[in-house]
């Protein structure tokens, strides 16, 4: 993924862009830790393959951590890292804006 840009908004958009990353981070902001199946339920209709890819990318960026437990059946939990936690106010602002303006945008048809 290419991140080089001088614009801070473009940089943030590249990190959280796409259909799922912001939704995954929002799910973890609201409740953590979350198991894989809980993240999937928070982001319907994401496929397991895409969710795994997005979780790996967020982990590679240092925004989330993954912890595997040596139990049967396998248990894996995801949570925000210290860097990921810095996104809490960003996500809260996005949620507030969405709540305030959703009807103005979606009811104009």
Keywords:
109 residues; alpha+beta; Arc Repressor Mutant, subunit A; three-stranded antiparallel β-sheet; 13% strand; globular
Let me know the average pLDDT.
92
CATH superfamily: Winged helix-like DNA-binding domain superfamily/Winged helix DNA-binding domain
What's the story with the biggest beta sheet? Answer: 3 strands, antiparallel
| CATH class annotation | Mainly Alpha
The structural domain count equals 1
Can you tell me the CATH topology? Arc Repressor Mutant, subunit A
Number of helices: 6
SSE topology string: HHEHHEEHH
Major sheet strand order: 1-3-2
Distance between the first and last residues' Cα: 36 Å
Can you describe this structure?
The protein has 109 residues and is an alpha+beta fold. The protein has one domain: Arc Repressor Mutant, subunit A, CATH 1.10.10.10. The chain is built from 6 helices and 3 strands. It has helices at residues 8-16, 21-30, 36-42, 48-60, 82-85, 88-106, and strands spanning 34-35, 64-69, 75-80. It has a 3-stranded antiparallel beta sheet. It is globular, with a radius of gyration of 15 Å. 16% of the residues are buried.
Task: State the gist of this model.
By secondary structure, the protein is an alpha+beta fold. The protein has one domain (8-106): Arc Repressor Mutant, subunit A. It has helices at 8-16, 21-30, 36-42, 48-60, 82-85, 88-106, and strands spanning 34-35, 64-69, 75-80.
Write the layout of secondary structure elements.
Blueprint lengths: L7 H9 L4 H10 L3 E2 H7 L5 H13 L3 E6 L5 E6 L1 H4 L2 H19 L3
Antiparallel strand pairs: 1-3, 2-3
């Amino acid at each position: 993924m290419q991140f080089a840009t001088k614009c801070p908004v473009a940089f943030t958009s590249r990190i959280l862009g796409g259909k799922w990353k912001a939704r995954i981070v929002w799910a973890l902001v609201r409740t953590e830790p979350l198991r894989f199946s809980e993240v999937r339920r928070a982001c319907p209709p994401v496929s397991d393959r895409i969710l795994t890819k997005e979780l790996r990318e967020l982990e590679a960026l240092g925004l989330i951590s993954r912890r595997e437990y040596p139990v049967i059946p396998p248990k894996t939990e995801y949570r925000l890292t210290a860097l990921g936690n810095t996104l809490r106010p960003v996500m809260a602002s996005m949620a507030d804006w969405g709540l305030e303006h959703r009807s103005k945008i979606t009811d104009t048809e």
